[in-house]
Design brief:
The protein has about 500 residues and is of the alpha+beta class. Helix content is about 30%, strand content about 20%. It binds zinc ion.
Amino acid sequence: MHSPKLPAAILLLCLVLPSLCRAAETAAPVFRAGAATSNITPELGGDIIGGFLPFPATHVHDELHARCLVLDDGKTKLALVVCDLLGVHRSLCKEAANLIETATGIPATNILISATHAHSATSAVGDAPRKYGSDVELTNYQHFVARRIADGVQRAANLLRPAEVAFGQVDAPEHVFNRRWFLKEGTVPVTPFGKTTDRVKMNPQAGSPNLLEPAGPTDPGVSFIAVREPNGRMISVYSAYSLHYVGGVGAGHISADYYGMYCEALKRLLRNSENDPPFVALMANGTSGDINNINFKNPRPSQPPYQQMRTVAEDLAAKVHGALTNMEWKTNVPLQAGYREPGIQWRAVEPELLSWARGLEPTPWGVRPTKNDLSTIYAGRIQRLAEAIPGTKAAVQVLRIGDICIATSPCETFAETGLEFKKRSPFPHSFMVELANGYYGYLPTPRHFELGGYETWPGTNYLEPQASVKILDAAIDMATQMATGTKKTSN
Ligand SMILES: [Zn+2]
């Protein structure tokens, strides 16, 4: 058991007044942590929404979860939740946060809820993109997910016990590929809007002789926060890696993709499945808006369902597990949270584009498209985007866990934004988690808006072109405020 450091004067008094010493020991803050999971698997029959053509779920390959970690420094509590979902709408996060605040007293600003971006899941983004708004009515499934998240956090809070924290990072460059490519002149396809303005292509044909070079970097780092009991028994590992879903599931299957498999693999490697309370791993999505698992230059042969995601998951788990043996554990871990809605606007739709969209017969919302006709799909999205309720409430959150700093973005955020946060953050260990506290489409940087391509098309991108700059600036500003006047901590 870690012995609290008492000021010398109190120690002296302790010699003559043992009761005072006991009182001071009780009063010394003890860092605590607890973790739990909630099953959020939907009913069969709902639409799996990863692609342009939704189709009904007919099988559950592996259950979906909300994985929850609660930290408590004796003064401040933080809750970190990762959901096996494509995205979580802001209104769902608000509902969950209200339930959590009522049950546990953890304030909404201290609760980080993110989605992994698993594509083999049904929708928790609800009406988006039927209606572009920050506050929407929740569907039954969204109510259910909010309730299950709140239960998971409450159970994690019930399990709070003395804990130590360590930060780690391992590199896994072999699984991440930038999916936006410059192609040979004249080979970038026409946009769904009939334009030839795109200079890059998302997901070009792997192995194509037209490939020139990727349009951006990758981030190979798996950042992770490990939490254990003072006796060494693991409580939880919160991880983040900048990789889109891997996919390759069976037809109609619900699955948590590599994110869920990583959590199971790490648990197996720790050989503590009999532990009570159980170890809980979490794998958040870092900044993977332009990153996937397809090796475009040297394509892999196709594989049976689930094989590639298992390869990725088990490799990441083995790397993180290997690093756990050499960590610097701390018990003096001050917690802080910051939350801001930095006044980001919806993407403006130019009049010319709107009249193009109005000239087409868009697929109505709620009708399952019968063919992959991008022009009519985007015509509908553009018409709805032009009617967006003005002013988004897109949020940025910063959590400080000792000398570790997590910033969030509510979008599919590009790798270079996450890399820049890691570089500019004043904290020694920093990383970003995307698709957090809301779902606001893709977030290209201003440079990528110039290059065009799928992620920049209105209806794939919902927010103004400066949104990535505003989000990063808000994150750096909050992190800097937390770091200013705070001495580097150690124990
Ligand atoms: Zn995506």
